[in-house]
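Quick one: structure tokens for this chain, please?
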Amino acid sequence: MGTGPAFQHYQAALQLLQQGRYERALAAFEKLLPSAPPEIHERCVMYINTCQRQLDEHRLTFQTPEEHYDYAVSQLNIGYYEEARDQFNSILADYPEADYALYGLALLDSITGRAQECLKNLARAIELNPKNRLQARADNDFQSMVDDPRFTELLYPEIP
């Protein structure tokens, strides 16, 4: 590894991370990122993600499953798909009948191109709460599924 100011900043940020000072480490890596030499750029990105995950884990305590769901949806909306998936699955681990979490997973599956999982999760969400069928009919996030006959059958079972 090289020398110079970028590498000194990198070492200092890494030391903060190792000490568990995630807020400060995150700030240091984020400040370094735009000017980071190619050989440490990827590592900076990885450590930024590590810091954010650590900070999130410490912050994440939810009073209600609905609050937890809102957080999962916020992760979905900003494109943190794996984090959203983890959160929806975490809700389902505690509340297996949480139709809204199954619906959220179905949305995520649709957005990430997992048609089979989308159909399975949406079918279960509808089985637990038939109102999810109406909601899904109007939900643009299922756009990738509209040409799938199984999806149409799930949303419009009354049409022969």
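Residues 5-59 form one domain.
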